[in-house]
């Protein structure tokens, strides 16, 4: 259910949802202040010059009704010449939740799916592990991460393997979730369930609803998409990981993995409009009501995320409410293998920053510092240029530590004695016994075969290369800089085991 909020949060939410615009007799700025843009541009350009930082960066700043500042540099894919531009689509990962929160507010106002609708109102026969009660968990709880449930498998399947149809959710919620302490805990599960509940209630999936009720009214449907197959392949930035010597490029997410908790690609140009709409810039909100933005931005949960400088103590239907040097801001980060992003809004300054890079080279800490600096710069605080200088100076060391940590993890995994010394060379009959199609109810089919001299396994959108280790045991890698996972073949009973799940022929 919607939780009570403190008086502080009510006042803060009101301030965030109703930013001060240029009033009659004032003149809106023609362009974003260089005092705001120049330090950010200098920092991201210097960072990009460090080998292994990121092939491409998109930095977008809005301020009042001024023309947005859009600074995009670099390559869509590190080993190709194509350059990113204002229409390049970068994966936004968990920033999708801020869009879903606005959708939830719109559909609540229209009576399509009221936020006080409970899970039992969607699935009357749903049974959850005690003490979770489907009669008490609402759509608002789901979008504000207060549903009191936890899962590893559903998050993993939807992010890396396959789409879970809405009709399957009651079963998997009963069998694949556990309970946790009440209150706020950030996770993907709430948005995943909301998307399934919306489709169950209306017969239309969340992709269609988001297009119709948010992206099209804001005129964003050509610059933001949850279905990459509908856009030209040449518009997408690939994700990247750095191994200390070379880039490992990772293909853009396919449609099947674009889920309600992390399922949007967005261009820099579109993110400028998105921020302006959320800040209340004249005309940017399209056909949406100011109340929709206010409802989506209003803190309803108590969050606990602080590094001693920035304190994020509230969460709405898709935004963290944060305080830095006494200045209030809304923000939401996003990350996935090979990409990191963040959007931060400073309503008192009517300013916003959207920053995304197509690598994960120690970037989450960097973007947190850039976010602080932006809030400070937008509100006239001292010392923020020095903060950015410190970020740039410290980055090579941070990146080296990240590279070393990954290398040691992979080397340590390879040296693990459980692999049996990598002495197995399977014969034709052994490979045939472990080949074919194997099925698991949650993960779906696993297709194992041999191609170009390699043993491979395809599980939904996941492609694994299986390296023989010892009889019956393969080491599975997926092209990322992560340690191999065990895949065990049991030819006698026609099964394969992966991630503690049995797949049967």
Tell me what you see in this structure.
32% of the residues lie in helices and 24% in strands. The model is unreliable at 1-27 (pLDDT under 50). The chain is globular, with a radius of gyration of 24 Å. A hairpin with a 5-residue loop joins strand 1 and strand 2 (69-74). It is α+β, with helices and mostly antiparallel strands and 505 residues long.
Structural class: alpha+beta
Gross geometry: globular
Helical content stands at 25-40%
Give the integer mean of the pLDDT values.
Answer: 93
Largest sheet: 8 strands, antiparallel
Gyration radius over CA: 24 Å
The number of helical segments is 14
**What is the first-to-last residue Cα distance?**
44 Å
Poorly predicted regions are 1-27
Tags for this model:
24% strand; 14 helices; eight-stranded antiparallel beta sheet; single chain; alpha+beta
Brief characterization of the structure:
This protein is of the alpha+beta class. 32% of the residues lie in helices and 24% in strands.
């Amino acid at each position: 259910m919607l939780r009570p909020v403190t008086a502080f949060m009510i006042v803060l939410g009101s301030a965030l949802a109703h930013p001060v615009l240029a009033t009659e007799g004032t003149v809106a700025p023609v362009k974003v202040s260089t005092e705001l843009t120049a330090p950010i541009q200098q920092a991201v350009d210097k960072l990009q010059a460090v080998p292994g930082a990121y092939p491409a960066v998109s930095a977008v700043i809005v301020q009042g009704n001024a023309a947005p500042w859009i600074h995009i540099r670099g390559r869509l894919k590190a080993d190709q010449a194509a350059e990113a531009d204002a229409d390049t689509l970068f994966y936004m990962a968990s920033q999708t939740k801020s869009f879903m929160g606005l959708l939830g507010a719109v559909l609540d106002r229209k009576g399509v799916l009221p936020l006080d609708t409970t899970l039992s109102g969607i699935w009357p026969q749903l049974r959850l592990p005690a003490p979770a009660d489907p009669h008490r968990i609402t759509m608002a709880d789901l979008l504000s991460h207060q549903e009191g449930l936890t899962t590893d498998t559903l998050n993993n399947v939807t992010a890396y393997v396959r789409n879970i149809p809405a009709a399957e959710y009651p079963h998997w919620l009963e069998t694949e979730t556990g309970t946790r302490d009440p209150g706020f805990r950030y996770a993907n599960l709430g948005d995943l369930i909301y998307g399934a509940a919306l489709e169950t209630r209306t017969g239309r999936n969340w992709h269609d609803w988001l297009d119709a009720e948010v992206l099209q009214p804001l005129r964003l449907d050509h610059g933001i998409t949850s279905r990459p197959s509908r856009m030209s392949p040449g518009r997408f930035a690939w994700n990247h990981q750095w191994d200390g010597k070379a880039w490992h490029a990772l293909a853009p997410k396919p449609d099947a993995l674009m889920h309600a908790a992390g399922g949007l690609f967005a261009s820099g140009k579109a993110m400028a409009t998105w921020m302006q709409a959320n800040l209340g810039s004249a005309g940017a909100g399209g056909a949406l009501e100011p109340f929709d933005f206010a409802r989506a931005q209003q803190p309803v949960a108590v969050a606990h995320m602080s590094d001693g400088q920035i304190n994020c103590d509230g969460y709405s239907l898709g935004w963290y409410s944060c305080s830095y040097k006494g200045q209030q801001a809304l923000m939401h980060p996003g990350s996935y293998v090979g990409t990191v992003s963040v959007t931060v809004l400073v309503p008192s300054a009517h300013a916003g920053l959207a920053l995304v890079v197509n690598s994960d080279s120690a970037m989450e800490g960097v973007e947190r510092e850039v976010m602080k600096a932006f809030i400070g710069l937008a509100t006239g605080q001292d010392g923020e240029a020095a903060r950015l200088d410190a970020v740039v100076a410290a980055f090579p060391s941070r990146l080296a530590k990240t590279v070393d940590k990954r290398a040691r993890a992979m080397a340590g995994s390879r040296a693990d004695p459980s692999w049996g010394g990598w002495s197995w060379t399977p014969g034709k009959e052994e490979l045939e016994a472990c080949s074919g199609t194997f099925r698991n109810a949650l993960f779906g089919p696993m297709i194992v075969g041999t191609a170009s001299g390699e043993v491979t396994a395809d599980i939904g959108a996941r492609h694994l290369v299986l390296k023989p280790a010892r009889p019956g045991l393969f080491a599975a890698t997926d092209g990322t800089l992560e340690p191999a996972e065990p895949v065990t073949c049991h030819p006698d009973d026609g099964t394969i085991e992966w991630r503690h799940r049995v797949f049967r022929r």
